[in-house]
Amino acid sequence: MDVLITQWINAAAGKSALLDMFMIATTQYCVPLVVLLVALQWWSASDRMHVRHTCIAAGLSFVIGLGLNQIILLFVHRVRPYDAGVSHLIISPSSDWSFPSDHVTATIAIATAFLLHGIRRRGAAFLAAAGLVCVSRIYVGTYYFTDVLGGAATGASAAIAVRWLYWEGTRLDRLATGISNPQC
C-alpha cells in the first residue's frame, strides 16, 4: 500500500513543467517561509503575549521534533524510494535515510502547536502549508508515503509534549514572551 500511494502521488512528476516547478518550490521554500511567518507572529497586534507563547511553543516543537527524527534515524535505515526504484526523483538526491521526513516534522509541529494553543485560523493556514509540504515531498520523489506519516507523527508528538510541559504564564514564559515588549 505504501509503495502504491507513493507511486500514485509521484506519477505526475516530470510530466508538467508548471506543476513540477510548483512542487519543487514548495519542497524547497515552504519550511523556511513557515518559520519566517511564525517569527513575524511575535509582533502580532492581537493577544500578543498568548501569540508569543505560541511562537515559542512552535519553535520548541520544531526543535524537539527534529531531535526525535535524529534519534529515529539512528535505528531506522530506510532506503529512499528513488534508490529502490519506486519513485522518479526530480530534485537533487539526499544523502541520509528516508524515514521520517524532517520537512514534514517541522511544518506539522508548527501547525499543531498553533492549533493546540487555540490559534485556529493561523494554525489552519500552517496546516494547509504542511499539507502542501507533505504532498510535495512525495511528488518530487524523495519520500515514501509512510515517511511523511512518520514525520507528521513526530511533529505532532513534539507539539503535544511541548503543550503539556511548557505552560503559559510561568515565570520563564513571562520572561521569554516579554522580550522586546515595551509594556513589560
Automatic annotation (TrEMBL):
Domain Phosphatidic acid phosphatase type 2/haloperoxidase: 54-163
Keyword Membrane recorded: yes
UniProt-annotated location(s): Cell membrane
Keyword check for Transmembrane helix: yes
GO CC annotations on file: plasma membrane
Gene3D superfamilies attached to this UniProt entry: Phosphatidic acid phosphatase type 2/haloperoxidase
Protein name according to UniProt: Phosphatidic acid phosphatase type 2/haloperoxidase domain-containing protein
